[in-house]
Amino acid sequence: MSNNEMVSRVENDRVLVLERVFDAPRDLVFKMFKEAEHLKRWWGPRGWELPVCNVDFRPGGVWHYCMKCIDQNLGQFYGMESWGKGVYKEIVEPEKIVYTDYFSDAEGNSNETMPSTETTMEFIDLGGKTKLVSRSEYVSAEALKTVMDMGMLQGITETWDRLEERLNEAI
């Protein structure tokens, strides 16, 4: 296993913990999550883009985005749009971002039929490298299972792969 692979584990049946080391300084990795121009370049699985990405990066601020599938090879997903919304709760630059993650619609209304998530992202300085630790707490084990069954883990793995590629371009 290369040291840059994502490691995942579940704690207390409903907390998904993801960890990965990036070969980039912490300030730069943090910036990738902070600015829309960066997020647009890497957020989402391969074959998806962000035609809409509005970031109000402050506690109480909202990140509202649309992921659209632009890869015809992804079959039934091609042309599909998926809207999401994050509401920032706590920001400690460049160490931590805490937000609540929702499925939403184009107007930014939360989709109450889908589980929301409390996510804490920690950026740990490893002297030129950065360890990113993401903890997502779901309301129940069932809610976590729902998103896992949707293929979320593969999606996040591809998303973080794209983040690494973007970091390599930016360094």
Explained architecture:
Helices cover 26% and strands 40% of the residues. The chain has 171 residues and is α+β, with helices and mostly antiparallel strands. An eight-stranded antiparallel β-sheet has the order 1-2-8-7-6-5-4-3. Strand 5 and strand 6 form a beta hairpin. It starts with 6 loop residues before the first strand and ends with a helix.
What is the structure about, briefly put?
The protein is an alpha+beta fold and 171 residues long.
Question: H/E series, N to C?
Answer: EEHHEEEEEEHH
Helix share of residues? 25-40%
Q: State mean pLDDT (0 to 100 scale).
A: 94
Strand content: 35-45%
What is the overall silhouette?
globular
- Low-pLDDT stretches are none
Calculate the terminal CA-CA distance, rounded to whole Å: 24 Å
For the largest sheet, list the strands in their spatial order.
1-2-8-7-6-5-4-3
